[in-house]
Amino acid sequence: MSNQTRTISAALEEIVRRFAPRDRAGMPLTPDTRLVDDFGIDSPRMIDVVLEVEDRFGITVDDNAMGRVRTFGEVLILVQTLAGGVS
């Protein structure tokens, strides 16, 4: 994993944890963690996550693209792609 990937991953983890329900915020967050089913991110919280991601990385996340992601790893790939950081 490159340094840029680790930096993006750490920032995304911070964002997701901030919007997770308190009882799940301390759970391990891996590339396979399902944001809705495992981490409890519901639709209103997902909107908050997307807005925070857009602000943090200076990108625009298409609603359809975000609707297709299910796992933390998929969000990471999406952000890397939009931020031009795929390596």
Structure commentary:
56% of the residues lie in helices and 0% in strands. It has 87 residues and is mainly α. It has a single domain, classed as Orthogonal Bundle (Non-ribosomal Peptide Synthetase Peptidyl Carrier Protein, Chain A). It is globular and about 35 Å long. It starts with a helix and ends in a 5-residue tail after the last helix.
What distinguishing features does this structure have?
mainly alpha, 87 residues, Non-ribosomal Peptide Synthetase Peptidyl Carrier Protein, Chain A, 56% helix
Task: Report a brief summary of the structure.
This protein has four helices and no strands. It is mainly α and 87 residues long.
Helix-strand blueprint:
Elements (H helix, E strand, L loop, with lengths): L2 H17 L23 H15 L5 H6 L3 H11 L5
Helix pairs in contact: 1-2, 1-4
Question: What is CATH's topology name?
Answer: Non-ribosomal Peptide Synthetase Peptidyl Carrier Protein, Chain A
Q: Please identify which CATH superfamily we are dealing with.
A: ACP-like
Rg from C-alpha positions?
Answer: 12 Å
Query: What percentage of residues falls in helices of 4 or more residues?
Result: 55-70%
Number of helices: 4
- Beta content: under 5%
Instruction: Give the termini separation.
Output: 9 Å
SS-based class? mainly alpha
